[in-house]
Amino acid sequence: MRGGLLHRTIVASGLLAVIVGATFAVLLSMIAQLREAGARAQHSDEVLVVANRLERLVGDLETGERGFLITAEEDLLQPWQAARAEFPEQATTLERMVADNPAQQARAREIAQAGTSYIQDYSVPLVAAARRDLNSARTVTVIAEGKRRIDAIRTDFDRFVAAEQDLAGARQLRSEAADHRAVVVAAGGLAGSILVIVVFAGYLSKAIVRPVRRAATMARRLAGGELGARTPERGVGEIGVLERSFNTMARSLEETREELTASRARIVAAGDQARRRIEHDLHDGTQQQLVALVLDTRSAEAAVPPELPELKAQLARVADGLGGALDDLRELSRGIHPAILSEGGLGAALKALARRSVVPVLLEVDIQQRLPEPVEVAAYYVVSEALTNAAKHARASVARLDARAGDGALKISVSDDGIGGADARRGSGLIGLTDRVEALSGTISVSSPAGKGTALRVELPLDGR
Fold first, then answer.
1. Of 154, 176, 219, 383, whose CA is between 20 and 30 Å from 137?
2. Residue 202 class from Cβ within 10 Å (0-12 exposed, 13-18 middle, 19+ buried)?
3. Phi, psi at residue 447, to the nearest 5°?
4. CB 416 within 8 A of CB 399
5. Tell me: the pLDDT tens digits for 197-232?
6. What is the CA 305 to chain-centroid distance, rounded?
């Protein structure tokens, strides 16, 4: 069974499993990429938040020290002091958050260094100097130096933020691309799976469903008696074995039926030959002896003197008895095998049956030549049984007999106007006729609705079997 349906089913199922598994694997990979892209996008947002916070701290430093220089009020230094204390921690946080990107880490480090330098080298000394001498801290040179430092820091922030936004945009594009690939892979996997399923379903229909239907049709034909039915042996694997097994079974049944038909025909022919021999023996033996005895008895009767009337009467009774026995023997001989069938053929024999029938018979016979002996014998007994049934059981007032030979077959129809209700399955007569007809590969049918008479139709092939 190498390469059978089981193997092909396993291959197709494996292919489907591979496609589905590969699709799910790629989808899982796409999902992982989407998660990573989402995490990176969120990370960029967090980096930008920290950068903005750090830039606001630098702004708080500038605003606090400028307000103090203008008003000399210590309260205005509280934001400055808070920003000064928080800046190192936020700067460190920013560097740590971009540690996986050397370029951004370098920019974050520049911002941290510039901010630390601004606090330690400019802002703190400036506030200390303002506390000692406010006017010395308000010089144009000092203020210009602070503006230069702040502008440099803000420029660093702008570069950092712009680079991070570019990274976020690139990550967003990669996320969208991964999303698109996931959709394409899912659609492709679904389409591939559907294609494999459709192809496999079509293959199953072609390789299994159709051959099984053909086998079922063949089985119905075999059950209906069409033993010559065959199914094409085009199936693969187990289906091919099934088709070959069906055909082998059909050939075996056909051969068995042919052997059975031939055996039945031989049995029928042997019975007919035996009856013919018996009829011949009776005709040439016993009947002739009885005829001789009747003649001798009549001669003896004629030779009796008139003065012996009792002896003469006794011989007359013996002669009459022998004549009756001879008539009974002739009737019995006709039942065994009618001599007229052998001598005059089926047409003459059917006419003789019609004449002897108790029920009047409307006769139409169109048989121009002698037919094969088994066909003539079977036809004779069919008509004889049908007319006997019409007289004994059907209570018919008239019967019709139609017999025609032509187109390779003998067709006989016997119908009556009796009470109907005959059942071919009951009664040894009809069953015996059916066996005789089917032994010659003929067909027999009986139609007998209650109250509408009985019609018996027989068709016998004229091929000599």
1. 154
2. exposed
3. -120, 120
4. yes
5. 888 788 777 777 788 888 888 888 888 878 788 888
6. 100
Question: Of 166, 142, 155, which Cα lies nearest the Cα of 110?
Answer: 155
142, 176, 204 - which closes a domain: 204
Q: Is residue 406 part of a domain?
A: yes
On whether residue 49 sits in a domain, the answer given is: yes
Residue 413: CB atoms within 10 A of its CB come to 17
Bin 451: left if φ > 0, else alpha if -120 < ψ < 50, else beta: left
Kindly report, residue by residue over 30-51, the tens digit of the pLDDT.
777 778 777 877 888 898 899 8
Contact between residue 414 and residue 401 where contact means Cβ atoms under 8 Å apart: yes
Helices of type H across 337-372: 339-356
- DSSP letter (8 states) at residue 98: T
The model scores a pTM over 0.70: no
**Structural domain total, the chain:** 2
CATH number assigned to the domain comprising residue 410:
3.30.565.10
Alpha helices in 205-338 (DSSP H): 210-223, 237-281, 288-303, 309-336
DSSP count for the chain of H helices, then E strands: 12, 5
- The one-character DSSP state at 73 is -
Residue 295, SS3 per DSSP: helix
Pairing status of strand 399-406 against strand 455-461: unpaired
Taking only Cα atoms into account, the Rg of the chain, rounded to an integer number of angstroms, comes to 61
- Any domain includes 453: yes
Whether 240 is covered by a domain: the verdict is no
Q: Concatenate the DSSP letters of all residues of 244-280 into one string.
A: HHHHHHHHHHHHHHHHHHHHHHHHHHHHHHHHHHHHH
**Which residue type, as a one-letter code, is found at position 10?**
I
CA distance 175 to 166: 14
